[in-house]
Amino acid sequence: MTTRVVRSRDFPVATRFGPGAVLLYDRSLSRRVPGFAAWSRTFPHRVAVAAGESLKDADRFGDHIEPIVRATTGRARSEAVLVCAGGGSVGDFGGFAASVIQRGIRLVHVPTTWLAAVDSAHGGKTALNVGGRKNSIGTFYPAERVCLVRRVLDALPDPRAREGIAEMVKIALLDGGAWAKRFLASEDPRDVLLWRHLAAAIDAKQRVVDEDARETSGHRQILNFGHTVGHVIEAHDGVPHGRAITQGLYFALAWSCRRAWLTEADHRRFAAALARLTGDRMTGPRAPIPRARFVSLLAADKKAAGAARVTFVFLHALGSPTRRRVPIEAVADEAAFLGWVR
Amino acid sequence: MTTRVVRSRDFPVATRFGPGAVLLYDRSLSRRVPGFAAWSRTFPHRVAVAAGESLKDADRFGDHIEPIVRATTGRARSEAVLVCAGGGSVGDFGGFAASVIQRGIRLVHVPTTWLAAVDSAHGGKTALNVGGRKNSIGTFYPAERVCLVRRVLDALPDPRAREGIAEMVKIALLDGGAWAKRFLASEDPRDVLLWRHLAAAIDAKQRVVDEDARETSGHRQILNFGHTVGHVIEAHDGVPHGRAITQGLYFALAWSCRRAWLTEADHRRFAAALARLTGDRMTGPRAPIPRARFVSLLAADKKAAGAARVTFVFLHALGSPTRRRVPIEAVADEAAFLGWVR
Lengths: 342, 342
Fold this sequence. Notes:
2 copies of one chain form a homodimer.
Chain A: E1 4-8, E2 21-26, H1 29-32, H2 36-40, E3 45-49, H3 61-72, E4 81-86, H4 88-100, E5 106-111, H5 114-120, E6 128-130, E7 133-137, E8 145-149, H6 150-153, H7 158-175, H8 178-185, H9 190-211, H10 227-237, H11 241-258, H12 264-278, H13 291-301, E9 309-317, E10 320-327, H14 328-337
Parallel strand pairs in A: 1-8, 2-3, 2-4, 4-5, 5-8
Antiparallel strand pairs in A: 6-7, 9-10
């Protein structure tokens, strides 16, 4: 199914989703986003949740899904619509819920973080956590519509914009189209940049997803660019996803250059763009990570306790990524070379 | 994906499923089926469960899926195989688990009841219950293989065979092929009949499923033949599914005849076959059901609290069913006419 991405200044009109619409929303939005509370009340059914990883906990799945099942009971599958307003956790849980209620009802995302607007609301991955294993279960279930609402995204404080920009730099480096060149060279402020390039960045991700929607060929793994080491830093330092991915991108660029995939000139150019756009320079983790810890976090991220290798995404040139199976120890060696591991 | 149905005298060899195989099984099988315990120990991973509706309770989903997630951690999706040995509840839960772990690992069913062997292991519907609403969530996820093991099915006591035969009569009436005519006219004992016509009955169901795998056209609803009123009796009287469906089939045949869809001669012939094959004559519910209760159970079964109509499957002739939207009150009128409702 093709997802329709719609940009608008204001909230989509609730009645357009019909009498079977259920709004699932991050309860903090009523406080944070002007007009949100009034908009939420125009829905025939509303389910407020506390956003965050606990929403994705399989142990609480029954509690969390019950009000949505109740609200959609008596509706034909074609009439029941779950509209998810929130960031990554609300989208992951809500997408999963929509994919399984009556074996699949309609799904609309209204992302309320830049990270969700740029990345997680698109591509159809839903997820829950089991026994602390992040995203260990889920479904492939693209939303029929993603509504990008200027009024919501403009209400975000800048650090949240920074979250989104790292993913946008990632997709720009992978895609390399005209939009990506303009974006990487731009000196505009982040919020202007994000809004201006949002549609192109989403299209670029969607092209990758369309080639490998259910992760069978492996091509979709290129979206993991910057995430292999980024996830280690996110888990170890407890920093926000966007900050960690920025460091992961520095790492991937540096290693691509050291392996002579990427020229020195391109490396300098892309690293400079990353610094300018995200506002974060290359620092690595807060302090060097003990090597054993680094290796075990890498293996855990690959959901492979005893795995010896991971798929690492390198960059040849703008728009030319390459996937390679590399020994986990080789990743650790490179991290040690950069002083990120001790 | 096409499901391969394999009949064999003995258990499939565990090693053929590879090192990533996890056996999910009804723990009572070790006691009930000779050789089961020894076979289960040949799997690299085993997860024993208590079969029954509580296995499908969304409130306990985290607990139930955790050992399977743990056992498949570190396996590629193409290597992790969940082999589900059990009846309907094990298949419904296990199928759901396999469909969501890593967004879909491999799935094999080894049905251990006739009901599962004839019906529920085929067609790819998985299900859990939310807040007491039966099968309110689930996925469409056909097994890659269904292993029908003579040694297991022969170990079943006769009442369980009776469970399966009602579903087999249903599919025979819907399909009407040469096998169905032979089956409906046969005087053989039930276990002989079941085994002899199993492959043909499964093929007949699969042809219906293939036309409407994800329940979009509505054609698949013909499989609900006999189930509309059957489910009411199952819920009200607490009788086993097969017994209730037998009564539901009597009802559907009688109403088809009264509406002049079905000739008197065909009605007599099919009702006689149903009686002979299942060993259950037409009795209706244990005692007449209060009309308000009958109506509310019908509406609940359609997952439609205030629904005024249900889709009812009538029979024109052998192999010629027809779906009609009928008022719930009309179903109650017919039940009152038969003395099943007061």
